[in-house]
Amino acid sequence: MFLTISTTGTPERPATDLGFLLHKHPEKAQSFSTSHGTAHVFYPEASVERCTAALLLEVDPVALVRRGKGKGRGGAPDAALAQYVNDRPYAASSLLSVAMTTVFKSALNGVCRAMPERVQEPLPLRIEVPALPARGGVELVEKLFGPLGWRSVDAVAVPLDEKFPEWGDSRYVRLVLEGELRLADALRQLYVLLPVLDDAKHYWVAPDEVDKLLRAGEGWLAEHPEQRLITSRYLSRRWGLTRQAMERLELVRLAESDDLEVESVDNAVDETTDTEEKPVPLAEQRRAAILEALRAAGASRVLDLGCGQGQLVQALLKDVRFTEIVGVDVSMRALTIASRRLKLDRMGERQAGRVTLRQGALTYTDKQLKGYDAAVLSEVIEHLDLPRLPALEYAVFGSARPQTVLVTTPNVEYNVRWETLPAGHVRHGDHRFEWTREEFRSWARQVSERHGYGVAFVPVGADDPEVGPPTQMAVFTMSAEKNATGEKTGAETDRTTDHRTGTETDRMTDEKTKEAKAA
Q1: Model-level pTM?
Q2: Strand 404-410 to strand 2-8: parallel, antiparallel, or no bridges (unpaired)?
Q3: How many CB atoms are closer than 10 A to CB 399?
Q4: pLDDT in tens, 438-479
Q5: Quick check: helix, strand or coil at residue 516?
Q6: d(CA 419, CA 411)
Q7: What share of the chain in percent tops pLDDT 70?
Q8: Burial 50-75 (b: 16+ CB within 10 A, else e)
Q9: CA-CA-CA-CA dihedral for 102, 105, 107, 111, to nearest 10
Q10: Residue 255 and residue 296 in contact, taking contact as beta carbons nearer than 8 Å
Q11: How would you label 346-362 residue by residue, b for 16+ Cβ within 10 Å and e otherwise?
């Protein structure tokens, strides 16, 4: 099994810097023991102008059978057919990938103390693999390596026998990659794609392989057009692991699109506090106020945008008037918890048909969210950076356009009533802002004017005469389209509700509505 890595250089940047990056001296030939044989590293050429490092892996067929998967469950197909006589010692496969992690571990991790600046610089690279199994042929090789920044991907099919061309081509190709990439990126691509092309592994694929895949695929796998095929083959078509990897890659993609860290995107589950808020009755009061507003609006098909762990979805399912409920959240961890909370895997067919959980970023438009009666944004907006609010506003009010939209958010004025909350602190570590009542109302009025909605404000929780309620809720109702004079006929209502008596008082602030009432 053979692999060469070549680069060129100048007197200022000699090609022999490759030896520092690989942590292998060009003047030495070194050998390393692996679980299935011996790996040798040597340099066929090493000059200022050009340097080539070679990795030769000698595989012990007996060790491969004794330590490999054998003919049992998940056995490698080649070993199952011929345990001692096969192509394993000669064709690049997962054996070579494992040898690379043993021999070039620091280079794979992008570590070089001697030349830290060179690690981050693209190098003119030429990588050659003389015999590479490719289940999918030349076309698949080009599909896998083509999107990764290589200037040239030269994959030539190896004939079964050159003397008998009528026999056709074998499943092997000779691969030559040329281009300017960081050495660590090139090695990581090979580490993942060699066993993917071979479509077999010499060891049992355990759950920790998902982490290995994501580490090696950092920076390129999340956006790769053949992501699903790569993930499935790398994980030996274990569908549970493949699904887990795909979900995590989707989070990476969403985070990269907004230039954020994955942890800041997948933050709906607080690791240090009880996010179910069981000790805090305010959470139940908030859900009760939302349910009351949805019933009053006559909604039956409801979107819970930013559904988190599914508490509101669970409450909606208990009321048969809500015939279709869709929970949307960017966090797959939160959706997994929601699924367990709702017992979706044990739910009856009719009940399961009422609920859908979907992953999605609320700052992007989604055609599948159009046509619903109502949408709920419960304790969501404060988790967004203020510059992202217009995107969410358009996605909900401008694109999805449900008849009713409910938005709840903390009232920062009430924070002085929380004895355990230090002065100047927000209620949750991920809150990017918390608004006063006037700030929230000002934002809500602007949204309603821009998108043709009327808006009413409802207090949630004890309405303190000095600082207001702990939670404030805006109820947006789609107004009639502009009349012939170009004026909207929607009304803005400032609603104060007495939850003990169920009575409410409305103050109409829309002049056109006042005139209509007077008439």
Answers
A1: 0.53
A2: unpaired
A3: 14
A4: 999 999 999 999 999 999 999 998 888 889 999 999 999 998
A5: helix
A6: 15
A7: 83
A8: bbbbbbbbebbbeebbeebbeeeeeb
A9: -160
A10: no
A11: eeeeeeeebbebeebbb
Cβ contact 230:221 at 8 Å = yes
Per-residue pLDDT for 351 more than 90? Answer: no
Rounded Cα–Cα distance for residues 334 and 188 (Å):
30
Segment 477-491 shows an average pLDDT of: 53
C-alpha 407/C-alpha 257 separation (Å) is 26
What are the tokens at 28? Answer: 């030495």
pLDDT in tens, 110-153: 899 888 888 899 999 999 999 999 998 999 999 999 999 999 99
Q: Report the distance separating Cα 460 and Cα 289, nearest Å.
A: 7
Q: Are 158 and 131 in contact (CB under 8 A)?
A: yes
Per DSSP (E only), the strands in 402-492 are 404-410, 453-460, 471-478
The pLDDT score that the predictor gives to residue 164 is: 92
CA 448 to CA 492: how far, in whole Å? Answer: 9
Determine the 3-state secondary structure of 172 from DSSP. Answer: strand
- Collapsed DSSP state (helix, strand, coil) of residue 499: coil
Structure tokens belonging to residue 63? 């060790």
CA torsion angle 61 65 71 77 (round to 10): -40
In one-letter notation, the amino acid at residue 498 is D
In this prediction, residue 259 carries a pLDDT of: 59
- Would you place residue 205 in the very low, low, confident or very high pLDDT band (cuts 50, 70, 90)? confident
Q: Which amino acid is at 414?
A: Y
Cα–Cα distance measured from residue 463 to residue 473, given in angstroms and rounded to the nearest whole number: 12
- Calculate the average pLDDT of the chain: 83
Separation in Å, CA 366 to CA 5, 127, 195, 310: 45, 42, 36, 20
Residues 6+ away with beta carbon under 8 Å from 515 = none
Distance CA(130)–CA(173), nearest Å, equals 7
Query: Other CB atoms closer than 10 Å to residue 442's CB: what's the count?
Result: 12
Nearest C-alpha neighbor of 149 from the set 203, 110, 188, 107: 188
| DSSP H helical ranges for 199-280 | 208-216, 227-234, 239-257, 262-265
Instruction: To the nearest 10°, report the CA torsion of 134, 139, 143, 146.
Output: 100
Between CA 123 and CA 24 the distance in angstroms is: 17
> Which one, of 149, 225, 230, 231, lies nearest residue 186 by Cα?
149
